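Predict structure. Chain length: 78.
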Amino acid sequence: MYTPQMANAFKSVAHFCPNGFILDVVDNEHFITLRASEPNFMRLTGEDKIRAAEYMIRAKKALEDNGAIVLLVREGGV
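Prediction complete.
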């Protein structure tokens, strides 16, 4: 399901990602999951949290524009 076109689209929005934030792409055969680590997100400053949220939305849209069904989830937490 995760095609080379989708990979290129995901990479094309990488410059929006704040330093220290990681968004994992999980290929679930019929859909893609974008997984963010909650502890990683919580360590960001206020401005970087906004940038991270915008990055997640841009990454989701980039994949959807290339035919993917995308689920955005968070992992971890206390």
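Summary: The CA atoms of residues 2 and 71 lie 13 Å apart.
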